Amino acid sequence: MYETVIGLEVHVELGTKTKIFCGCETEFGAPPNTHVCPVCMGSPGVLPVLNEQALRLGMKAAMALHCEVRKDSKFDRKNYFYPDSPKAYQISQYDEPIGEHGYIDIEVGGQVRRIGITRVHLEEDAGKLSHSVFGDASYVDFNRVGIPLIEIVSEPDIQTAEEARLYLEELKAIMQYCAVSECKMEEGSLRCDANISLRPIGQKELGTKTEIKNMNSFRHVERGLLFEQERQEAMLHRNEMIVQETRRFDESTMSTISMRSKEDAHDYRYFAEPDLPRIVVSDRFLAECLAEIPELPAQKRARFVQDYGLPDYDASVLTATRPLAEFFDETAKRVKDPKVASNWIMGDVLGYLKTTDATIETFAISSMRLAELIGLIENGTISTKIAKSVFKDMLETGKDAKILIEEQGLVQISDESALRAIAQKVIENNPKSVQDVVAGKDKAIGSLVGQMMKETKGKANPQVVNQILKELITG
Amino acid sequence: MLDFSQGIRKLHEALRSGTTTPEELLNQSIEQIEQKDGEIKAFLRVNDVTARDRLKGNAAASNSFSPKHLLDGIPYALKDNMCYEGIETTCASKILEGYIPPYTATVAQKLDDAGAILIGKANMDEFAMGSSTENSSYFPTKNPWQQDHVPGGSSGGSVAAVAAGMVPFALGSDTGGSIRQPAAFCGVVGLKPTYGRVSRYGLVAFASSLDQIGPITNSVEDAAIVLQAIAGADVHDATSAHVEVPDFTAKLTGDIRGLQVGVAPEFFADAMDEGVRQRVQEAVQVLKELGAEIKPISLPHISYAIAAYYLLAPAEASSNLARFDGVRYGYRSQNAQNLLAMYSKTRSEGFGKEVKRRILIGTYALSSGYYDAYYKRAQKMRTLIRQDFEQAFSQVDVIVSPTTPAPAFLLGEKTKDPVTMYMTDMCTIPINLAGLPAISVPCGLSQGMPVGLQIIGKMFDEQTILQVADAYEKTVDFAAVRTAHSKEAK
Amino acid sequence: MTLSKADVDHVARLARIDLSEQEEIELAKELSAILDYASQLQEVDLDGVEPMSHVAGQQPVFRQDEPHESLPSDIVLKNAPDAEDQQFKVPAIMEG
Lengths: 475, 490, 96
Ligand SMILES: [Mg+2]
Ligand SMILES: [Zn+2]
Known about the structure:
The complex is a heterotrimer of chains A (475), B (490) and C (96). Chain A has helices at residues 52-64, 161-177, 218-237, 283-291, 297-308, 312-318, 322-333, 338-356, 367-378, 384-397, 401-408, 416-429, 431-438, 444-455, 462-474; strands spanning 2-13, 50-51, 68-69, 72-73, 76-79, 89-92, 99-108, 111-124, 128-131, 137-141, 148-154, 190-200, 210-215, 245-250, 255-258, 271-272, 279-280.
């Protein structure tokens, strides 16, 4: 029996307006080589100047990942030749990263697992390469070069492909909560490479690992790791040696393929970047960064369960993004039963957003107005059923629930004497159903309730109706 | 004809009074270049058309020109490792042939703003790697004092242009002595400011933690005037210092009474030229007579400076010069079938021998397994050298030494042996390692060639080294020696 | 410290510089001489000395996150040895 050991290296693009060492914009999808200047193109004679916002976001990220942060760190040069690297070195951090020794907690099968984070460091992104269809040339676009990144390296604490996905989902949520990055994997603003190895259970030393690249979604990470785990396991069973190599995830076959190993072993010749002074930040700067870190997803989940009595499932759905969690929080505060608010948001609101491709930030009904609608159910003014149609009308007309209810005369009839009179009439007109009820066919009562609703145009309070009908029929 | 060597202030006064015009100064500069540069070869490129265009733009009515700055209307030369938008910049390397920078270096921008007129780009050792300007990929420059001698390097072109009277001043860059050593060899003034005093933005880097741009001039006052124009913090250079820029001419009174002048025996090597030793000793005597107090000091680690420098500078250079890969600009080999070959053929065909040598040494010093033994040890030695100076400067205001251990050597004399060539920078290199300011002023002749006196100051205290250099210059009147020599030459 | 031809070859490959057989032999000699000279650093006890990577006394200088204008596209590729469709063109990069 083998156990799997996985470590992830995640690159996250920081959400700055401009690049890390120059004022070129970071906009995604611009025409090739339009967001470049002498600095990011590595023209002879240029010098980098650090974007303070990039440092701030990097620090916030490190803090949110529970790292110990350095007040005094430095940049280093990582030297390598490649056409996407205009200076032939990447400005990165080597032995003094901004953050170290952090962690992310994930929940696996109801158990909390703590995944260690080795380090968080700042660096610049590389350019983008594309290749001629004839295979005779490659092309370089430098728009992406110099976009600020943080690299987040996990400890080899991850044991399954599912844990890897959960780790990434949590990481993404944390980054988004802190407004560090949008983490759009499809735009490359979150990228993940994985190291995976197997070892016999009980063995201390790690087995030979492979590195997997080119996984462009969380699902691909999970699939790629599963494939690789099975591939390695099968090889070990056959007593074959695992080759340490880099493998590429292939989307079309959902498998990993060996990439040709590079010409020579990497020797990056790191040394301190002489063009940038050491990064020394003040206590005030750190305090400001810390103050900008909001309640994080894990804390929010725990609070929703504890304070609002939500089931774990609801809490994790509602904390998937910070705006959604805040929407729920604001709604729940204003209603009697937070679970009802949860049901409405998880059902009607998210359902609506899904069909319209909208987001909670631009959702037409504010949390306050939704809470008002829920309040009207809770105080008996309208039924849940009527509320659903009011909800639709609110979206269509933009009007408040109260106004719509008034306009359409939807106030629920709970007055017993009025309902008793209508019930008498319904019983007289439906002897067959009455007989069925008497005969113990419980379902038949539904048809009588339906008749009542028809007579009252749906305004009858269903609970009261049920009670009156039963009383009149069975005595 | 106005003699450029009479100083920028005189030229400025002539412009102000209308006895000359910027156009006349420009014409004179161009004439001097036409007359002399066929022999001297100080310039890689003379951009006279651009210069004339700029002049037209600056002063539409040249007959009513009134200078707004001491440098307004004064022509100058830039070492070819400083960028000026639209003007070819090669660092005297084949790998950058035809390269047109898309932006202007901060120093050139500042001189532009002051109204100075760029006349051309001066020759240099390729990528500033050398001490004789013989490592230019184009041609060597000759020493105007005596043309079978080297002008020194790497700013040999800039210095020769000033020494030969082709321009009133020039900018050079100094990584291990590249301003001061050629200034000493050619009998002019060269100033390396404190690291961080002058922006490096637009200076094609050799060794980023050591490089500084500085003036090459006929007089100490001119050096102060030019430094004033180019100094100051720059938003484009994070290593430029946010330190107040004082008036560099304020202390040029000739009075140095009471100043403490340190002399360290370590600067006077056994193998030193006897004439140089004597001239510098005489200079120390002059300072004493002017009322300075001479104090013996010790700098025990500076004998290790060359060893440390020839690991640190090449290490940084190996990384700085990696960008010359044939992808975005400059030379690309046409003999390559694949990417790897494109890189290595481009670089092997584009770089000269000394540059390759230093890239390889630097790569080696940083490579896995050797970093600690070479690069890191050299960095530690750098700390000790800096501490030596800190210690010394707790006792004295300035330190004086020879600029070079010997006067200019013959062309071709040292090209065979790199280590001997490196030795010519033994007095200047420690100053770059420590980040300090230093100036070289002429202090007489040895074997008929000029000798330089180096005056080293505390961090950001260019004022005091200028003060001492100026007082010395006023007393010894090297200008007379120069005039006598040029008459003799005729 | 003596560098072999193989050492020179390795370093030259790291530095992406093509050398002829003759150059390798010469450089092995010259680089060895430089390293020999540098070996005097081994004489000094440097334990506990902080390495100096920057000239000290500088406060960090930051840039604010404000965009500047990027280069016009005709300038971007002006110095390019080879270009096509607004991109820099290089010999094919093989990745299997
Ligand atoms: Mg990275
Ligand atoms: Zn840019």
